[in-house]
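Minutes, methods subgroup
Present: GH (chair), OT, SY

1. OT presented the first of two proteins processed in the latest run. Sequence and structure tokens recorded below as shown on screen.
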Amino acid sequence: MDWCLNVSDSSLSCILSQCRNLEALDIGCCEEVTDTAFHHISNEEPGLSLKILKVSNCPKITVVGIGILLGKCSYLEYLDVRSCPHITKAGLDEAGLHLPDFCKVNFNGSINEPAVLL
């Protein structure tokens, strides 16, 4: 869904709720998506199966939204948050958010992306 400019919070929330076994999701440059898209999954069981999540260039997603996702994505291996002005390493640390030990986070493009991409 990279560069799908009309993706809304409600459509992404529906995808995450209905596609629990989804392993990779790229919503890069979906500029209208906010943390609200993730609020509905916070109360749902079971968790998400996401291993690769790319939210680069999503200026309305914050540490709050990432925190919700981290609470539901225990298998996350790669998180791309490049060009997300509200998501920084310091911000994640200040919020007390912990990524899975095996998860690589791309804050600025310096980490190689996984071999299998969307």
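2. SY then presented the second protein from the same run.
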Amino acid sequence: DRFTLEKLGTVISYGLAVEDILVTARRNPDAPASDQVILHIQRPEYDLEQVGAWDAFGMRGTCSDSFTLRAQGSLEQIVPQPYAVLSERTMLPVTHIFWASTWLGIASDAVERARASIRAAARRNPGTLPPRARDLARLQAQLDVMRSSIQAALVEYAHACDNPEATSTMGFAIRMNDLKLSASVAVAEIIEGAMRVAGLVAYRNDTPYSLGRHMRDSHSAALMVHNERLIEHNANLLCLAKEV
């Protein structure tokens, strides 16, 4: 037995460079949109027609081009577990933890560049605390809070991997969403703070303290998936959950 699939305008990062793709689809043509499965498709059993290019303000490295996907294959390539189960147990927590960790790396580098600018100022005036040094200390505190929230999520998810039922609770979903929400806000705030600490040398592109790329990338964080969608989802869960 075999399947055929056509999916219009789907976004596939580095789609033209890969040989294997995991794609979601309705279980059958008559299934509701909520009844989805994941398929593992491989070359040469699929074809991609590019219909859009990724030309964005930031996060250019994701190469998120759009394609029309046409595929066929054996039913054995359909992952047996429902997509909803895989999403709550793996895709949701892993995606949010990886995203938050990426944003932590961007924020950490921004703070380090701001710190380097303060250290350079301190060397120019020995014995005098640079004017923005206290702001740098506050910035480091924000970064440490961000790092701690990711570490806490990692610990909780590691525990949940040994107890899969834990990932199906509303409280777990809320906390994983909260991680994405808080980290996506924190990265933009930290980088804006780092730019204020370093000043014009961070605003310029031709200095070792430049934060232009950091700034552009950080503002995508709240848009993928849009924070307002997650807030609305969490609001619904909080109304339904007996405990979180």
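Chair's summary of item 2: The chain has six helices and five strands.
Next meeting: continue with the remaining queue.
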